Amino acid sequence: MSGYLRSGIFLAPFHNLNENPTLAIERDMELVQHLDRLNYSEAWIGEHHSGGFEIIASPELFIAAAAERTRHIRLGTGVVSLPYHNPFMLADRMVQLDHMTRGRAMFGVGPGALVHDAMKIGIKAEQQRPRMDQALDVLVRLLRGESVTEKTDWYDLKDAQLQVPCYTQPVMEMAVAASRSPTGALAAGRHGIGMLSIGGTSPDAIKHHANNWRIYEEQARLNGHAAHRRNWRMVTLIHIAETREKARENVQHGIHAFRNYFNDVATFPIVPPDVEDPYTFFVETGAGCIGTPDDAIAYIENLLKGTGGFGAILELAHNWADWEQTKRHYELMARYVHPHFQDSRRLRIESYDFARDHHEEFGSQSRAAVQAAIDKHKAPKAAE
Predict the structure, then answer these.
(1) Spatial distance between the Cα atoms of 51 and 36, rounded to a whole number of angstroms
(2) Cis amide prior to 59 (ω within 30 degrees)
(3) I need a surface site. Which of 31, 66, 140, 321 has the fewest CB within 10 A?
(4) Cβ contact 70:363 at 8 Å
(5) Between β-strands 156-160 and 148-151, what pairing exists: parallel, antiparallel or unpaired?
(6) 304 and 363: one domain?
(7) C-alpha–C-alpha distance, residues 274 and 255, integer Å
């Protein structure tokens, strides 16, 4: 596939129940700093309020702190659950974050993934997606500088207009989470903003994502927007090491707790409940990649082929491996996988090949030039 593929992570995060939450959040911050040094393009930070595993409640707070500790990486809310927030107050906070990060902040939105989060504040599951649509319509208008008067059963806005414009002009970058339902694709296409495809990258999931892209394209066209695949981000599961055996050994640290969380708590299981060995499931079904850098390259190429192409590959920060091997995984991705999709090695290889193919010719010229210099130096002495 041609084109520059951006790299990133989707940081829910996932932390086992036996860990110190203070240190777990600090390690998430260290991870973003590590990725910044490794030239990752972006990191998306989640919002969750129950379940015990995904323990960042305010991605905006995390991003504000991470922006002070990093230099290049872009930082997005991945995602803010719109039904949980008054849209005017949320827009105002995000614009402030846009200014504080000098445009490195991105605004990812969704309906909220965990039903028990919504229930705790009196929101029913069937209300989440309609409320996301309502809030998103208002947010887009507010971020564009419009004044909004609108009353619903959960907010009442009267001449609501932001007092500060976006730092990023004309508006800060936005994206909508899209999973199994078409809700996210419809909303993203309607407003002409980006799409974050979550929910796995098994062959069946890729078919759903590709269909959501078709929905996105249709909605964008109907609403006068151009659909650009560079604004489509794909979230996937990858862990690599120097060998397949080492990768398999690494993931035994946390892959079972990850599987249990999705079976016990999360909205949908990634690994079927009757599967005893999640490693074998991911490798044999193609639902994830556990292997070497070459395996990761082949896996991502397959995702690009199956979807028709997207603009960024986001690794789900799953914590399958321990901290040191997790950092090593990201280093291997940055050193050996990303360059394959970012065309950063081609000119070097062409330069090397040219020099190699003309090695004898250039060597002969160099030796002749050296000998000529020696002879020139000796000539006056010989004349004397």
Answers:
(1) 29
(2) no
(3) 140
(4) no
(5) antiparallel
(6) no
(7) 15
Radius of gyration of the chain (CA): 25
What per-residue confidence (pLDDT) applies to 81?
A: 98
Residue 331's identity, in one-letter code, is E
Euclidean distance between CA atoms 35 and 142, whole angstroms: 32
Residue 335 is classified by DSSP as I
Tokens of 345: 């090695």
The domain in which residue 256 lies consists of: 6-345
β-pair type (174-178, 105-110): parallel
Model pTM score: 0.94
Distance CA 327, CA 256 (A): 20
Pairwise CA distance, residues 229 & 339, whole Å: 20
Lookup: tokens for 282? 């991911």
167-178 pLDDT, tens digit per residue, is: 999 999 999 999
Cis, bond preceding 83 (omega within 30 deg of 0) = no
CA distances (Å), origin 319, targets 228, 239, 301: 32, 9, 24
